[in-house]
Amino acid sequence: MIIKIKPAKTNFYLNLKELWDYRELFYIFAWRDIKVRYKQTILGVLWVIFQPIVTTFIFTFFFGNLAKISSGVLPYSLFSLCGIIFWTFFSTGLSHASTSMVANENIIKKVYFPKIMLPLSSILTSFVDFSINIILLLVLTLYLGYFPHLIGLIIFPLSIGLAMITSFGLGLILASLNVKYRDVGYILPFFIQILLFITPIIYPLAIVSESNRIIMALNPMSAVVELSRFVLNPEYAIYPEVIIISVISSILILVLGLWYFRRTEKFFADIV
Q1: Would you say 247 and 223 are in contact if contact means Cβ atoms under 8 Å apart?
Q2: How far apart are CA 225 and CA 235, in angstroms?
Q3: Longest CA span, the chain
Q4: Buried b (16+ CB within 10 A) or exposed e, 94-131
């Protein structure tokens, strides 16, 4: 049996069949990342929930109690935890995806496999942590007497999908750039920090002017965070134009990321 490896006809090509054929390798990458993350740690998986709990406490004390920032119809602790959980999922997935090529340079140089699996497995690893944090969010939601409503439960997967698409698209771009320009590793933490403040984590979009809301909607995480809060209370104010712009922006980021990754993929083994 002869297997011919040919370049894709277009840079927008995503060979789902090839990804399926290499699914076992994909699981190995994901499982390895999970084990490495918690290897030789005292608390292990408890670190996953430790960070959002502490961050929520700090945000609630300083921004909710001292600064008196509005949280709409939700208690500030629940309001901030929604944003923190989704933001942690996005930022962690993006950080690991951006370094996935450099971290796996040895295997990239030795054997052929769909290299797009590396940033994709990084997103999956972050999703495992995110799933644990969702349980934490549900516990706090029920404790405070809130119950997700039916429409919200339908919308919730949209929030998760937007976050995954955005982190995957940006991850593809940064992973490709990081192969050639190692400055990405220094710039990315600063970029994530800046992006945190232009995402409605500590404040709702309701207090932002209409013109600035449109600008902030270009950041898909704005819609992700706001939709997650709407899931918990149907009276929470959301803006359809923000959702539409964020969805379009997220799709464009994914398309651009896929195009740039495919365009530079053939040089990875030579310059990584």
Answers
A1: yes
A2: 15
A3: 70
A4: bbbbbbbbbbbeeebeeeebbbbbbbbbbbbbbbebbe
Q: Rounded to whole angstroms, how far apart are CA atoms 236 and 226? A: 9
Tokens of residue 44, six digits = 């292990």
User: In one letter, which amino acid is 180?
Assistant: K
For residues 92 and 126, the answer to whether their CB atoms sit within 8 Å is yes
Question: What contacts 262, CB < 8 A, 6 or more positions away?
Answer: 8, 10, 11, 12, 13
Q: Which helix (H) or strand (E) holds 147?
A: none
Location of structure tokens 């030579």: 270
- Tokens describing residue 236: 């929470």
Distance separating alpha carbons of residues 48 and 37, to the nearest angstrom: 11
Instruction: Output the average pLDDT for the chain.
Output: 87
Structure token pair of residue 178: 């990081």
The token pair at 5 is: 């490896």
Span 5-49, pLDDT tens digits: 555 555 555 677 888 888 888 888 888 887 777 676 666 677 788
Residue 33, amino acid: D
